[in-house]
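All the exercises in this workshop are built on plain-text protein records. A record pairs a protein's sequence with a compact description of its fold. Read left to right, the backbone structure tokens trace the chain's path through space. Once this layout is familiar, the rest of the handout is easier to follow. Here is such a record, shown just as it appears in the course material:
>
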Amino acid sequence: MSVYKPAKSRFYAYDFQHKGRRFHGSTGVEGKRAAEKVERDLREKAALGLLDDASQLTLNQAAGRWWLEHGSTLKDADRLFARVERMVETLGPNTIISEITTNVVARGIQKRRGQGFTRSKADDAKVYLPKAGTVNRDMIDSLRPILMRARKVWGAVLPEINWKDLRAKEPKPKPKEFASADLSLVYGQVMPHWHDLIDFASRYGCRLSELFFPPEDLDVDDVNDARVKLRERKGDDDHTIPLLPEDAAMFAARKGRAVAAGLRTVWFREIPSKRPGRPAKLRALTYNGCAIAMRRAMTRSGLRESKGMKGAHDFRHHSGMKMLRATGDIRMAQKLLGHADIKSTLVYAHAIESDVKRGLAALSRNSPGPVDATPERVEADQLSKVTRAKGS
């Protein structure tokens, strides 16, 4: 097979066989002639047996092989592909994987931290630096599985890397909660076709990607025993959430209309027909459209500035906080949000701390003895007790 350019990469890839063994991966170059030269060199090395040692793979070759064997099968593959590509560019596509040490990765991380980006195309657009979490995912979470597969599956002998010390400390998330008036502000800044989605997201705590489930994942035949299955999740596991009857009824109506219109989501807007008497057309709402609408709503409502609300994910935080506050049961909040590890749910634990403090304060007020036990107050209390005793 000649070199070719994959649909999602600007680099040409190679794919050939030698003595029944397949060699494939990225050439690391953008021009076809240069890619063909890389392929010729690789064919010569394969004929000489120089490619038998996986330790001598370049990072580009290892990343390409890992992608074809494993990465492309994972959920959220598009985003993962972009992260792997950034990591390869940062560390150098021609870096031999056996030469990747803790120090090499540390230098790459430092380089990635300095790669600024803008959020608009304006000449005077503000330049932002990537956050610690972004750098960790781009440089560590993208590289580590490639090297692990090279060692465990391909038999490569590689240096040990101190991943723990390389990982930058990420600030703990601080979930926020909407007051009733806050949600009203959000409703006021979006079109009405977003209202049901906001209601659902803020009650059930779904991630943005999980909100756009297909109609067949809704089981609403019996509104008193209804549920929705969420598949587009961080892990490979599905998560099923029971639905309240009023929400099940809403979804039953939406599901019927969505299926009739051939939509792959139950979230849609109505487009009135220009011809009198014609029914309105349904247009599906989208992930990107929702993300943009919610970000704008938080900004225009003033909630971004006053409470730090940034977008659709804040509805998930709100749901977790409300559940924990209402039940005091962190396991219940974990089940609602679908966290595999309860440690992820613990960030919501401060939701009940204020309730505990109020309870302690009330306990102090209702308990025998004054809260402010000054000597004068104690003496007065004792005198009162003596007086009551004499009168009895």
